[in-house]
Amino acid sequence: MAHETLERPDGAAADWTIPQDWARYSAAEHAMWDTLFERQAAMLPGRVAPEFLAGLDMLRLSKPGIPDFGELSERLMAATGWQVVAVPGLVPDEVFFDHLANRRFVAGRFIRTPEQVDYLKEPDIFHDVFGHVPLLANPVFADYMQAYGVGGQRAAGLGAIEKLARLYWYTVEFGLIRTGGDLRIYGAGIVSSFGESVFALDDPSPNRLGFDLKRLMRTQYRIDDYQQTYFVIDSFEDLLRQTQEIDFGPLYAELEGQGTIEIEAILPDDTVITRGTQAYARSKLVGA
Ligand SMILES: [Fe+2]
Description:
Fe cation binds at residues 127, 132, 173. The chain is an alpha/beta fold and 288 residues long. Helices cover 47% and strands 10% of the residues. It is built from 13 helices and seven strands. The mean pLDDT is 94.
C-alpha cells in the first residue's frame, strides 16, 4: 500500500500490472530465491502456523528458483481462486484494494541482492510471494484477504484508510496466532524475515497482546525495524468473523474522536500475553 501520490510507470497496464518476464531472471537471482527459501523453510516448522506450512507446497513448482507467476496462479486459482500478478513497486491504495477485492495479489518482481539478504526497505518477490502466497492457499485466510480489499474500497470513501492499514499491518504483515498452547507466527513480514521469525516469538523485548480490533486500529507501528508490539489472534476463522460482523462505518466514526496509541503502550484493558521489556528498541535508541 502507498499513501503518497504515485505515477504509473510507462509499460504498466491501467491496473498497474506488468509482465513478470520470468525468462529474464539470472541464475544468481534464482539461486538467491532458493537460498532464502531453504533457510526459511528449515527454520519455520514449530514457529509458523500449520496453515502456512500446508500452503508452502504451493510454491514448489515444476522449475526450481523464483516462481513463475503463471504456473503459480494456476495452482492457486485451483485451490482458492486467487492469482498473483506482477507490479513495478508500490501501487496506489485504490489499485491495491481493487486487486485484493478481485482475488489478485500484487507482487514485486525484483529479488534482493546478496548485500540485502537480511535488510530490505521495499518488499521484494521473496517477501511478497514466500511471505504472502502460502496463506492465500488457505480458504479462510483467502476470504479474509478479499474482505480486506472490499473493506479498503469502503474505507477510502470514508477517509479511514490509515486505520484500516493498521489492521493489515498487525495481521497480514505482523500477526501472531495461538496454536494449541503455543504462539505461532503467520504475518508475511515475520515469516519472510530470518531475524524477526525468532524475535517475534522468543525475544523478551516486544509486547504480545490479544487481538482487539478497535485498539489495534489506533495503534501506531514502525516500518524501520522489528515490531515493538504484536497482536495475537485466536484463529483465522475468528479474525474473518470479527472483520465480517463489524460495521466499519460507525467504527471509524467512533475511533475518529480517539487518539492514536503509542507503539509500546500497554493499556488497562489489554489482554497481556507478554509484557515486553522493550530492551531491543531501547538499545537501538542508545546507538542512534
Ligand atoms: Fe507484505
